[in-house]
Amino acid sequence: MSPNEAQLRAALRDGEGNRVDVDAVVASALRVRHARRQRLSAIAGAVIVVAGVAGGAALLGRGDHNSTTASSGERSVPSFSATSDRSAQPPAAAGGSDSAATAIRCPAQLPRLLRPGGGATATFGGGGALFAAPIAAAKVCAYLNGTGGDSQVLDATQATELAASVERAPASRGTRLCPNSTTGNDPPAFVIFAVTAAGKRLPVVTATLGCPGLVTNGSAIRYNWSPPSSVSALITERAASRPTGRATS
Amino acid sequence: MRDEAGFRVFAEANGATLLHAARLLTGDHHRGEDLVQTVLTKVYLKWDRIDTPLAYARRALVTAHIDSTRRRWWGERPTETMPEAASADVASAADERDELRRLLTELSSRERAVVVLRYYCDMSERDVAAMLAMPVGTVKSTCARALARLRVEAGVGGAS
Predict the structure, then answer these.
(1) Deepest in the core among A45, A129, A192, B106, taking most CB within 10 A?
(2) Euclidean distance between CA atoms B132 and B111, whole angstroms
(3) Inter-chain touch A1–B157, beta carbons under 8 Å
C-alpha cells in the first residue's frame, strides 16, 4: 500500500475516543503540588536555618572581637599608674610577647612603689609571687640617680632567669643593718616590665640595688636581690656613660 | 486553583484527543496515558496563567515526548528486527490502518511529532513550525520525508 493523505488521516484517527480520567489527573496534580510545596518549604527552612546560624556566628565573632578589643584596652592601661610619671605610660602590647616588650617605653623617672604591708617584712602577702604568671619576655629599664636611659629587652630564657632570681630572693629583710647614705645619690634601680607568652602585661616590678636592695610589685616584696649579669650590665653601662651624682639637668 | 471546574471541562473536552495524540507520539498505549497524564498535570498547575490551554497542552505533549526519547535509559532502543515485523502471515492479516500506525513508530520522534500535529491535530504548517520552534520550511521537508518513508515502508510491507 502507498498511503495518501486521507488514508493517513484516517489511520491516525482510528482508535481514538478513550476518555481521560479527570479525577485521576486532578489528584495527581494535587500530589505534585503538595510535593512541590513541601520541597519549597524544606528549602526555605534550610535557608532560614543557615542564615540564622551564619548570623549567630557573625554576632558571636563580633562579640569576641569586642571583648578582645576591650581586653586589649585594659592591657593598655598602665599597671604602674600609681606612679608619678604618667607620661611614661607604655603603649598596648602588640603581637607576640617580644614585640609587646619592645613596644614598652621606659618611664623617664624611676617609678616609686609603696612597699607592701606598710613596710613590714613578709606580711600582708608580701611573700607572694612578684610575677603572677610565667613570663616570656621582659623589658628592663635601668636608672641611675633616679633617671633612666638604658633599657634591654630580654628574651624568654633571660626573662625566666630574671624572674627566677627575683623570686628566689628572701621575702624578709633579715637583721642586716644598712648604713646611712652619705653621698646623697639614689642607688641604682631597675624597672621590669614582664610580658606573658600571650602578650599580656604583668604588674610592673621595681628593683632597687644596694642595701637593703628591695624588689617589689606593690603587693609582694623581696630583699637583697642580686640581678643576673645580663641585667646588671645595664647599670655598668649606665654608670660608665654618666658621671655619678644627682643629675641636675 | 481558582477555576478547577474550567479545567475539568477542558480536560473532558480535549482529553480524548490529547490521549490519542500521545499514543500516536509514543507508539504505546500505556506510555501515551502516562504522557497525557503528565501534560494535563502541568496544565492543571498552570491553569490560572495559561491563555490558550489547548495550544499549551499540545506543545507540552510534544516537548515531553521528545524529551522522553532523549532519555535513552528508558527510551526507545533501535533493534535490527522489529518485534512485530512481521512475518508474511501477520502482515497479510494486519489492517492497513494498523500497518500505517506501526510504521509511524519507526519514524524519528520529531518526524512523528510533525506528522501527528499536521495530520491528526490538523494544524497548519505555520502552527506546527511555531510549536516545534523550527522554520516552516523545515516542517515541510520533515513532513515530506516522513510521508515518503511511510510510503516506501508501506510499499515494501505491502509487497512482502
Answers:
(1) A192
(2) 11
(3) yes
For residue B38, is it left (φ>0), alpha (ψ between -120 and 50) or beta?
alpha
Cα A108 to the center of its chain, rounded Å: 25
Q: Do A18 and B16 touch (CB under 8 A)?
A: yes
**pTM, rounded to two decimals:** 0.45
Task: Show the cell assigned to A174.
Answer: 633579715
d(CA A174, CA A212): 9
Name every residue in B having a CB less than 8 A away from some CB of A.
4, 7-8, 11-12, 15-20, 23-24, 36-37, 40-41, 44-45, 96-101, 104, 115-116, 119-120, 147, 150-151, 154-155, 157-158
Distance CA B138, CA A223 (A): 108
Q: What is the pLDDT of residues A144-198, one digit of tens each?
A: 877 776 788 888 888 888 888 888 888 877 777 777 665 667 788 888 999 988 8
ipTM entry = 0.70
> Mutation test of the interface with chain A: which of B2, B37, B111, B122, choosing the one with the most A Cβ atoms within 10 A?
B37
List, for chain B, all residue ranges whose pLDDT scores fall below the cut of 70.
1-2, 71-96, 154-160
Facing B119 at nearest CB: one of A2, A5, A17: A5
- With CA atoms as reference, the chain A residue closest to B10 would be A22
Q: Which of A8, A18, A33 sits opposite B100 (nearest CB)?
A: A8
CA distance B133 to chain A (A): 23
Backbone torsions φ then ψ of A152, nearest 5 degrees? -150, 135
List all residues 6 or more positions away from A25 whose beta carbon is below 8 Å from its beta carbon.
B11, B15, B37, B40, B41, B44
